Amino acid sequence: MMLFIFRILISFIAALVGMVRYKKLTMPFKILSIYLVLVFIQEIVNKFYIILHKNNYIIMHAGTLIKCVSLSIIYYYLFQKRTAKTISGILTSLLTIFILINAFVFEPFDSTFPSNALTADDVVFVIISLLLFKQMLQYAVQVNIYKQGIFWFNSAVLFFSGTMFANFVLVNYNASNNIKSEILTFSWNGAEILFNILLGFAILVEINRKGNSMYNATS
Amino acid sequence: MPQVKVIAAADEITRIEVMTSIFSVFLVGCVIYFVVLYRNRQVKNKKEQEEREAIFQQELLKTQVEIQEQTFEQISKEIHDNITQVLSFVKLTMRSLGNGLDEANKAKLNDSRELLSQTIIDLRDMSKSMSFEHIASAGLAKSIEKEVERMNKSDVIKVSYAISGKIYSLGEQRELVLFRILQESINNALKHSGAKHFNISLQYREDLFNLTLQDDGSGFTPASVENKSGSGLRNIENRAAMIGGKATIDSAPGKGCRVCVDLYPLKQFNTNGASHSNSFS
After folding, report:
1. In chain B, N or C terminus with fewer CB closer than 10 Å?
2. Assessment of whether the complete model's pTM goes beyond 0.80
3. A chain contacts of residue B41, beta-carbon cutoff 8 Å
């Protein structure tokens, strides 16, 4: 219960930071703010759904889809080069289609946890975050890296996607070998909490630097 | 047997925990590595930008100097070909007017003709000091000598001039720039410092040429002129750097101003480290 309260609190603070700073943000970070609000709502709905229906499959399927679409749009705005935008667009489009097919065919949304979708999601976003890191190196701006929201956002996605992918692998391994490991539960929750903290921090430090930013992607 | 199974499961759990930890540390390490790379890239970009800025400033200065010299040349020609000719004609006309005047008026006319002659000479000297061709043909030392004579004739400031060492040519363009630095310094002394004496010294050594300009004016604090736009002092420093030299300016309130320009004839370089040719372009 304490863990849930802590998660909700972090999620709420991150969403609140996004809403407070909304007008000062560039478009990708505005979308991120909206995503954080949706994440907060998802956390609450998730808890109630578990209490009522003893599972949260449908919430997880919906959450995965929302996460995929939101991050896709954010990355589309953050990429500068057409090639990177195209690659990102293709990967995320295929991912979205896969999530939808998975929800209706392979892992029905009302009865199965979307582990395939989450795994694919993590792999795709690790690749995309690495592409963005590459772009940041190519077009390094003269701003302290710790004051760039893009750095914190991308680090959050890389860390979260990488950790969750590893968690899935290990959870499946444990399940097939009847092993119970507390560390994976801790790692899972820890990754989600850290993800929200880093996203909130990204919004906090992000400034709309018009004319002085490689990611001057306002609408 | 159950005990063995428990130990095996515990080992497995430890291995999983270690793998999870290592993987997390690996991800964090990747991000830290990226930060290091990014900072190095920022430093490199900044350095490149500064170099581009320095090159741009050099080119801008060269263009400004070229335009200035062209303007001076045009003015010099205009003075020589037009104004002094007209004044000479006026002088001739005045001579013919002298016939039929009484003694008092003749004396006045002669005084006016004298003044006119002096004006024509001064204008010719000024024209030569503005003309690149005259400075180039006469050389730096001779050009400064003529300039010193002109200044001393004006009685506004007393200029002294000393040369040490065997005179050699530094190249037309460099000598022109040094001459302009001298003119700038004299202008500054006259306009701002109220100086009464101005000392010029040239030192010719095999490995070093030095031009030292010193006045006895009111002096200034460097900070008080540093950020002013159009600062002639910055102009002096930039011009010296343009020809591969180094200008140092020392002054303090009440202590006058001293400008030293050092030039290494055997080892020329510009501000971005490339070798420097005897030319603006």
Report:
1. N
2. no
3. 137, 140
